[in-house]
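pinned: reference chain
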Amino acid sequence: MTFQNPSLNEQKSILENAKTIAVVGLSDKPERTSYQVAKVMQDAGYRIIPVNPRADEILGEKAVKELTDIKEHVDIVNVFRRSEFLPEVAEAFVQIDATVFWAQLGLVNEEAAQFLTEKGYPVIMDRCIKVAYQELL
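pinned: its C-alpha cells
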C-alpha cells in the first residue's frame, strides 16, 4: 500500500467540522514548531489539548501525559513525534476513538496508515495542519 492523503476537499471538510485538536508532542517552548502550529490553530478557534508527559500546562490548557488520558471526544489528533512512533500513537488514537489522525510535515508511517485505514479512520500524513488550514479555510 502506498499511502495517499484524502483530497483537499476532504481535508477542508475535516478542518471545518473539527473543534478539538489533541496535539501529541506539543512543546511548551514557544520557539518550537509544534507550539507555533498549535498556537495558530488555537487562535483560529480550535480547542487544543496538549499531550506531553513533561508539562502541566501549555497555551493555557491543561496537558495530559498521554493520549489515552483524554476522556472527551477528540476530532483531530495532530502528531509531532518521529515517524517510527506513529504506530504506537495510532494504537492510542484507536483507544480514544478520535475522528482524524493527522501527522505533521515530514512524518509518514505506512504501518500506522494501514492500521488506521483498515479500521475506517481518515489519515493525513506529511502535511502541516496550519498550512492546510491557511490554504483551505
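why pinned: The radius of gyration is 14 Å. The mean pLDDT is 97.
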